[in-house]
Design brief:
Blueprint: H1 2-18
Amino acid sequence: MQFNFYFNACLTTLQQSLMGGPNYHPFLD
């Protein structure tokens, strides 16, 4: 469960990066 949370967070960050958006780190917020 914990792993999936961080995994999904990383995917979100990667998608933001690919879209050229600002760096987004939900797990570091």
